[in-house]
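Email to the structure team, subject: Ferrous iron transport protein A model.

Hi all, the expression group asked for a predicted structure before they design truncation constructs. Nothing fancy, just the tokens so they can compare against earlier work. One-line instruction: predict Ferrous iron transport protein A, return tokens.
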Amino acid sequence: MNRKLSELKPGERAKIKGFASSELELKLMEMGCIPGEVVVVEQVAPLGDPISIRIAGYSLSLRLNEADQIILEH
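Reply from the structure team: attached below.
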């Protein structure tokens, strides 16, 4: 079952499968969001945007519109 990163709750983890659009693909890959990497949601801001994730050994903050472009596999 495929989900989007924006749908995960704090503490959940999943593996990146790909991207919903090519517009942000290069930017996200430069930030370490590479297919095959495991991502863990660390925190979600009180109003839901942005979210903090742990990927490749570091923390990264993403806007929901960016997280919505990352397709995950469970």
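The mean pLDDT is 92. The chain is about 15% helix and 40% strand. Ping us if the truncation boundaries need rechecking.
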